[in-house]
Amino acid sequence: MTVDGRDVGAFRRFYEVKFGVRREELEFPAGMGLEEARVFMAREHAEVRADGLGLVDGDTWLGVAWLDWWLVGNTDTVDVELAVAPAYRRRGVATKLLDAAIERARADGRRIVSGTNVAGDPVTGESPGTAFAAARGFVKKHAELHQVAELPLNDVVEQPVDGYEIVQWREHTPDEWLEQFVELLSGMSEDVPTGERTSEAVRWTPELVRDAEDRRIAQGRFTYTTAAVHTASGELAAYTQMGGTPETPDRLNQYDTYVRRTHRGNRLGVAVKGPNLRALQAGVSLPAVLHTWNAPENAPMIAVNTKLGFRPVAQRTMWERTLL
Ligand SMILES: CC(C)(COP(=O)(O)OP(=O)(O)OC[C@H]1O[C@@H](n2cnc3c(N)ncnc32)[C@H](O)[C@@H]1OP(=O)(O)O)[C@@H](O)C(=O)NCCC(=O)NCCS
């Protein structure tokens, strides 16, 4: 059956399988809360549309698939996340869901099915999900180390950089920074390591930023942003974002961290992350786990995180299958 987020009862059953599997697979499960995810699926967004599939036997939900259909960048790709309740594995449930997703992808003119295995071993990256992906013709394209920090951290590193000032904001990017923030978001999309993935950079616009902000608010999310401004030129040089939702107070996320190309090598990563972490810790209920993911080749970012108090807990791998 298909799920669209508007039928609250059906979405709850769908979510129970999806998040139940994450809880089962990961010591530190990450992901959207029930309402956060439902609103994401139910609403129209500028750059992505999401829906789901459930394989249901009578009143029992055996497995589910979450589908993200990109509308800006990667418009020939559909992302599929499969989850099968542990009691019903190795009976072809995921294969049936994947076949249904592929049929829909073809009907929508998509060329690539991609999927992420979130629960890989921190060193080898392997999991039942990677065995399934390999068995069903997917090719591994990229990997990211999943690190967590258990908050509160008592000594948050504070390392200001001469010549730069810190500015902070919450749910809305101040108008005075919007144009420059759009440039940094586009730069992030171009520069973030994506390995061998088929990945088209997103050209951000002020409208897309406002749409994403409105969506986060509708989902019940809060966001903390810290940016560094180059005092002499007034240029926005770096930013970092963290956030979560009161629905799942124990789970917080480190989102993007980006330093403009012309300002790299000045330790701006730590300079923005430290104050952002301090603001986050002051504003949320603790204890909580802060999650982040980075490509192993992004060693400087992993080093910054380790310095701040993060440690590795899993590896997620991204897979693709090209439809013939
Ligand atoms: C990965 C997952 C979705 C597979 O679900 P499933 O319904 O058991 O998969 P299927 O029965 O369709 O398996 C198809 C084939 O994949 C391979 N496979 C699946 N699970 C495997 C495992 N644990 N070990 C080795 N091979 C496995 C086998 O080749 C299997 O065929 P076989 O049973 O005839 O040997 C399920 O284990 C799961 O929910 N894992 C956690 C979430 C996850 O990793 N999702 C994938 C992210 S997209």
UniProtKB/TrEMBL annotation:
Keywords: Transferase. Residues 1-183 form the N-acetyltransferase domain. The keyword Transferase applies. InterPro entries: Acyl_CoA_acyltransferase (IPR016181), GNAT_dom (IPR000182). It comes from the Bacteria. GO terms for molecular function: acyltransferase activity, transferring groups other than amino-acyl groups. It holds the Pfam family Acetyltransf_1. PROSITE patterns: GNAT (PS51186). The keyword Transferase applies. This is GNAT family N-acetyltransferase. It comes from Kribbella soli. The lineage of its organism: Bacteria, Bacillati, Actinomycetota, Actinomycetes, Propionibacteriales.
